[in-house]
Amino acid sequence: MGAPPILELCQLDKAFGKIVIAEGIDLSVSQGEGLGIIGPNGAGKSTLFNLIAGDDRPNSGDILFDGRSINDMKPYQRSRLGIGRSYQIPQPFGKMTVFENVLTAAVFGSGTTVAEAEDRCIEILHRTGLMGEVNKPAGRLTLLQRKRLELARSLATRPRLLLLDEIAGGLTEVETQALINTIRDLRETGVTLIWIEHIVHALIATVDRLIVLNGGRIICDGKPREVIQSPEVRRIYLGVEPE
Amino acid sequence: MEWISTLLQGLLLGGVYSLFAIGLSLVFGVMRLVNIAHGDLIVLASFTSYVVVQALGVGPLMSLVIVLPTFFLFGYLVQLLVLNRTLGDDMLPPMIVTFGLSIVIQNALFDVFTADNRKLNLGPIETASFRLGNDIAIGIYPLAVFAIAIATIVALQALFYNTKLGREFRATSDDAEAARMMGINTKRVFAVATGIGMVVIAIAGVLMGVRTTFDPFSGPVRLLFAFEAVIIGGLGSIWGTLFGGIVLGLAQAIGGQIDPQFQIMTGHIVFLVVLLLRPTGFFPKVQH
């Protein structure tokens, strides 16, 4: 890892009552890196995104973006700083058209004027395969289109760090492959990616590094294929007992 | 001819009710907040105008120059400092806070102004009318109020669909969490929405204060009419509130024509029938 870190989590703790969601999480992500996160349901993956994006606050610990603590920043401030996210269950602005959804993200997330944002929105809609749906109300999109819109909207905010939460979940194999290609193209633009996904082969095809969360802790961290082969990961995550 | 005159009066009365309802609908549409103090705020606007008129010797319409910005600021600050802290998945906490606000406003007004009836005076224009043919007279003031209601709706519609602020309103109304992730400061958006809602409340309060008397406890009736117009028109729909206001105004006028005692009752009956047959109103914009 030559590049400086864009995101650092330092001893991050989060609990809801007695349920511990994150415990002493230390994580550093370099600029331009692609990081995958896997873990069983309830392992604290989405909560980790909520902490990074500002939807939840940690009980203790520090989150640094570009070396600056962002603990006290609100979600909209983190978005303007360059943290974009998609939600596990797509949350489009259902009454707006696809174009308006992306335009809204571009105007408020990256602070440009409508006129400046329009060309960029068209480019993003091309890249995410939504050009045929620009005038459709987002509430009428199919699941794949909604997932693509989640991606398009988060891209429109000009993120330097992109958080994707199970964006391939529920898609067919062909759709997943198309999404993988889109995300691989995106990575070539230099954006840092953190991707939570249950579809492991999608991650292996896309990211440089994989971590495994279990019980709010990082139990494994390394190259994707090595992590997947780890006996502990196979036991906890895949339910395979080591021979 | 008498019936045509009655229907026209009902139609114009609907303009007043839709003005009552627009602020309620706007605030509900953007942040799902049911403002129980809405009627009392309308009355507070009437009293504020009354004080400005008394203190400066200006007319009620001129008093709007002071009342409108004051109400915008008041709404902005109440939302930012009080109501934003209560907003969440549960609609009950903000409702209870506005219920408290309603009690505070009523008692504060009673303390300062006693229970006496007041009225804002606009002079001869209040009763001026023009004739359509020999039998139909149309009041100039009710017609002007109706025109102001439509102008307010057109202005809000333009704000919603043609401005950057409007885009923030629509995104926040659709999904506040996602809006925050798109870089929108939703708390400020809520505060501005309440501020604008208060401006409409102030317009309604002053125009109604000219049309009829008010006292510190006339708020709940105004809230009821506003609420009925919003429900008939459909939650969150600004044009729907005009429709709801007109339906309510027509129902009251027709009821009053049959028997003056039936006037208010007929409005309530029509509201109940709509609630039974179309619980989401005629043009709903908010789904649950």
TrEMBL record, chain A:
<dbReference type="GO" id="GO:0015808">
    <property type="term" value="P:L-alanine transport"/>
</dbReference>
<dbReference type="InterPro" id="IPR027417">
    <property type="entry name" value="P-loop_NTPase"/>
</dbReference>
<dbReference type="InterPro" id="IPR003593">
    <property type="entry name" value="AAA+_ATPase"/>
</dbReference>
<dbReference type="GO" id="GO:1903805">
    <property type="term" value="P:L-valine import across plasma membrane"/>
</dbReference>
<dbReference type="GO" id="GO:0016887">
    <property type="term" value="F:ATP hydrolysis activity"/>
</dbReference>
<dbReference type="Pfam" id="PF12399">
    <property type="entry name" value="BCA_ABC_TP_C"/>
</dbReference>
<keyword id="KW-0813">Transport</keyword>
<dbReference type="InterPro" id="IPR003439">
    <property type="entry name" value="ABC_transporter-like_ATP-bd"/>
</dbReference>
<dbReference type="InterPro" id="IPR032823">
    <property type="entry name" value="BCA_ABC_TP_C"/>
</dbReference>
<dbReference type="GO" id="GO:0005304">
    <property type="term" value="F:L-valine transmembrane transporter activity"/>
</dbReference>
<dbReference type="InterPro" id="IPR051120">
    <property type="entry name" value="ABC_AA/LPS_Transport"/>
</dbReference>
<dbReference type="GO" id="GO:1903806">
    <property type="term" value="P:L-isoleucine import across plasma membrane"/>
</dbReference>
<dbReference type="GO" id="GO:0005886">
    <property type="term" value="C:plasma membrane"/>
</dbReference>
<feature type="domain" description="ABC transporter">
    <location>
        <begin position="7"/>
        <end position="240"/>
    </location>
</feature>
<keyword id="KW-0547">Nucleotide-binding</keyword>
<dbReference type="GO" id="GO:0005524">
    <property type="term" value="F:ATP binding"/>
</dbReference>
<keyword id="KW-0067">ATP-binding</keyword>
<dbReference type="GO" id="GO:0015192">
    <property type="term" value="F:L-phenylalanine transmembrane transporter activity"/>
</dbReference>
<protein>
    <submittedName>
        <fullName>Putative ABC transporter, ATP-binding protein</fullName>
    </submittedName>
</protein>
<dbReference type="GO" id="GO:0015188">
    <property type="term" value="F:L-isoleucine transmembrane transporter activity"/>
</dbReference>
<dbReference type="GO" id="GO:0042941">
    <property type="term" value="P:D-alanine transmembrane transport"/>
</dbReference>
<dbReference type="Pfam" id="PF00005">
    <property type="entry name" value="ABC_tran"/>
</dbReference>
UniProtKB/TrEMBL annotation, chain B:
<dbReference type="GO" id="GO:0022857">
    <property type="term" value="F:transmembrane transporter activity"/>
</dbReference>
<feature type="transmembrane region" description="Helical">
    <location>
        <begin position="189"/>
        <end position="210"/>
    </location>
</feature>
<dbReference type="Pfam" id="PF02653">
    <property type="entry name" value="BPD_transp_2"/>
</dbReference>
<keyword id="KW-0029">Amino-acid transport</keyword>
<feature type="transmembrane region" description="Helical">
    <location>
        <begin position="41"/>
        <end position="58"/>
    </location>
</feature>
<dbReference type="GO" id="GO:0005886">
    <property type="term" value="C:plasma membrane"/>
</dbReference>
<feature type="transmembrane region" description="Helical">
    <location>
        <begin position="136"/>
        <end position="160"/>
    </location>
</feature>
<dbReference type="InterPro" id="IPR052157">
    <property type="entry name" value="BCAA_transport_permease"/>
</dbReference>
<feature type="transmembrane region" description="Helical">
    <location>
        <begin position="262"/>
        <end position="283"/>
    </location>
</feature>
<protein>
    <submittedName>
        <fullName>Putative Amino acid or sugar ABC transport system, permease protein</fullName>
    </submittedName>
</protein>
<keyword id="KW-1133">Transmembrane helix</keyword>
<dbReference type="InterPro" id="IPR001851">
    <property type="entry name" value="ABC_transp_permease"/>
</dbReference>
<dbReference type="GO" id="GO:0006865">
    <property type="term" value="P:amino acid transport"/>
</dbReference>
<feature type="transmembrane region" description="Helical">
    <location>
        <begin position="95"/>
        <end position="116"/>
    </location>
</feature>
<keyword id="KW-1003">Cell membrane</keyword>
<feature type="transmembrane region" description="Helical">
    <location>
        <begin position="230"/>
        <end position="250"/>
    </location>
</feature>
<feature type="transmembrane region" description="Helical">
    <location>
        <begin position="64"/>
        <end position="83"/>
    </location>
</feature>
<keyword id="KW-0813">Transport</keyword>
<comment type="similarity">
    <text>Belongs to the binding-protein-dependent transport system permease family. LivHM subfamily.</text>
</comment>
<keyword id="KW-0812">Transmembrane</keyword>
<keyword id="KW-0472">Membrane</keyword>
<feature type="transmembrane region" description="Helical">
    <location>
        <begin position="12"/>
        <end position="34"/>
    </location>
</feature>
